[in-house]
Amino acid sequence: AAPAVSNFLRAIIDKDIADATYARAGMPSVITRFPPEPNGYLHIGHAKSICLNFGLARDYAGRCHLRFDDTNPEKEDQEYVDTIMDSVKWLGFDWEGATGNHLYFASDYFDKFYAIAEYLITAEHAYVDSQSAEDMAANRGDFSKPGVNSPFRERAASESLDLLRRMKAGEFQGGEHIVRAKIDMTSPNMNLRDPAIYRIRHAHHHRTGDAWCIYPMYDFAHPLEDAIENITHSICTLEFQDHRPFYDWVIERAAEGGFFQQPVPHQYEFARLNLTYVVTSKRKLRQLVEEGIVSGWDDPRMPTIVGIRRRGYTPESIQAFCERIGVTRSDGWIDYSTLEGCLREDLDPKAPRATAVLRPLKLIIDNFPEGETVECSSPVHPHHPERGLRLFPISKELWIEADDFMEEPSKGYFRLYPGNKVRLRYGYVVECTGCDKDENGNIIAVHCNYFADSKSGTEGSANYKVKGNIHWVSVATALEAEVRLYDRLFTDANPDAGGKDFMALLNPNALEVVKAYLEPGMSAALPDERFQFERHGYFVADRVDSVAGKPVFNRVTTLKDSWGK
Ligand code: ATP
Ligand code: MG
Ligand code: MG
Fold first, then answer.
1. DSSP 8-class letter at 504
2. Residue bearing the CA closest to ligand 1, atom 22
3. Is 479 helix (H, G, I), strand (E, B) or coil?
């Protein structure tokens, strides 16, 4: 891999290493984590966080934990745990290494979270509040006005402790009581106005079942998870910057209570990935799936990892993309074409070439001997002769692209039209003589004559100078395929931007299904195998629908960036 470009996080880590911040305590210098909540599918934004956290661990010989932040039982499920693990692995990362299997679940720490809550109450750093939800909201104040202390704030620690134990025992309904940190109801930082740390939820948890009916709040659980796992650098997106004082508060109080030793984790924020033409909000992605706009979470138009994988993106191209966009502390938009560029750069040197005729039209070489075939060939890869040749026969009847013929050529059109000569790529030069039409005037076949001494690679071919060069496959040996031409899901560059109705911005041409004819060798293509279809772009055999004898190909991206031009 290319040497990593420095960024503000690497600078922080370099300094921590120079100062021996963690080494002095006998700890590894870098332990990061990727902490998804198992409540949905990962998307390209998560890929940035995965590449960042696992990438830092790799580059600094530390480790990265995969931790499921499963503290919110209603929305979580094993299905999401499974797909997230699968997606992280597919991206090329592993939580299992020389130092063990670093797969963690926040739900495994429920006892510890609870013990810390009891400690905080005993130490008068927390209390049970019994206000109604409405009173609590009203007394919280807002950005323009300070909050007001709850009438329950000064209740005896022993009373709060008793209530917490009874909350845990299931004596109350959801919402009757809540545990809050005792900080400052007048703080300009809303997150410090006695934030909730535990609440009642009579909900079944996908791992702990019905063992608990109280669950910790994210802002309380998250710092504790980090501290329990000895995370050194806890990296999150910028919107959590205002949560950092509470993150530190929780860990400091718990450390005072003897739950953790110094040095403790620190939180650092970076700018989330915003990609043009893409929505990454889970709610919006779910709506696309549930309303049938796409075929599922793994629809190749979806920005989910399972979607971009099925679309044909490679893990290498996603990693290169995340490296290229870098890590900063200021929000911005990344152009979708950057992602496509990374795919092209990855596939161009690797992908075998192939011929695919999309939207086929028949070409008949009238002077070609009936029943005869002549073998033609071209390299599997133009820059890698050692990868050998593809072989395909030419014969009297061929399939060409409908676009490669015009009965009345427009200005600058060099391909087939009556009287014009073109080269059939890797084959012969032909001269167009006309076309056949059906009763409605639709062109159903094009006619031409060929020059027998013009075959590519032979001496005679040099005598023919033509401007047009078109691709073709023989009717007799062509392999029929379904080709799915995918494009951006939205027509607007910022469908996710405030106020916009993203459902009104769907690209009606985001999927076009066409019949295609492929060169015969393509019958051996395996699901997930990628090719460059000459003149068309990069394609992958669909990992779900493509089967031997009935291939289905997805267009990953065109050869050149043609969007918005
Ligand atoms: P939710 O709305 O459910 O909280 P989420 O996108 O935050 O959704 P998480 O499962 O909490 O999902 O995310 C796991 C990690 O991925 C978090 O550390 C989060 O910061 C990071 N992440 C999520 N979206 C992006 C993004 N667009 N760019 C970079 N990192 C992201
Ligand atoms: Mg989440
Ligand atoms: Mg989140």
1. G
2. 46
3. strand
Other Cβ atoms less than 10 A from the Cβ of 519: the count is 26
Is it the case that residue 562 has pLDDT exceeding 80? no
3-state secondary structure of 269: strand
The stretch 337-366 carries a mean pLDDT of 98
Determine the atom of ligand 1 nearest the C-alpha atom of 75. 3
β-strand pairing of 552-557 with 479-486:
parallel
Locate 9 and state its tokens: 């996080």
Closest atom of ligand 1 to CA, residue 49:
30
Burial of 293 from C-beta contacts in 10 A (0-12 / 13-18 / 19+): middle
Neighbours of 274 (CB within 10 A): 15
ipTM attached to this prediction: 0.96
Q: State the alpha helices, DSSP H only, in 348-414.
A: none
Is residue 150 packed enough to be buried (19+ CB in 10 Å), middle (13-18) or exposed (0-12)?
Answer: buried
| Crossing angle between the packed helical segments 218-228 and 110-122, to the nearest 10 degrees | 110
What is the set of domains in the chain, with CATH numbers? Answer: 8-106+219-325 (3.40.50.620), 111-218 (3.90.800.10), 356-470 (2.40.240.10)
Ligand 1 site, residue 72, Cβ cutoff 6 A: no
User: CA-to-CA distance for 166 and 556, rounded, in angstroms?
Assistant: 56
| Sign of the dihedral through C-alpha 439, 442, 445, 451 | positive
Residues 424/435, Cβ–Cβ less than 8 Å: no
Instruction: Give yes or no for residue 238 CB within 6 A of ligand 1.
Output: no
Instruction: Select which of 140, 207, 282, 324 is catalytic.
Output: 282
Q: Does 154 participate in catalysis according to the annotation?
A: no
User: Over the stretch 207-261, which tens digit does the pLDDT of each residue have?
Assistant: 999 999 999 999 999 999 999 999 999 999 999 999 999 999 999 999 999 999 9
Q: What was the pLDDT predicted at 4?
A: 67
Cα separation of 250 and 269, whole Å? 18
Residues ≥6 apart with Cβ < 8 Å to 385: 379
Confidence of residue 3 (pLDDT cuts 50, 70, 90): low
The best mutation among 37, 217, 238 to test binding of ligand 1, ranked by most ligand atoms within 8 Å of the C-beta, falls on 37
**Residue for token digits 């480790």?**
63
Average pLDDT, integer, range 501-510? 96
Tokens, residue 495: 């469908």
Q: Are 535 and 559 in contact (CB under 8 A)?
A: yes
Pick from 109, 102, 159, 106: which is nearest to 130 by CA?
Answer: 159
Q: Which ligand is nearest to the CA of 84?
A: 1
Cis link prior to 263 (omega < 30° from 0)?
yes
Angle at 323 between CA 13 and CA 304, to 5 degrees: 115
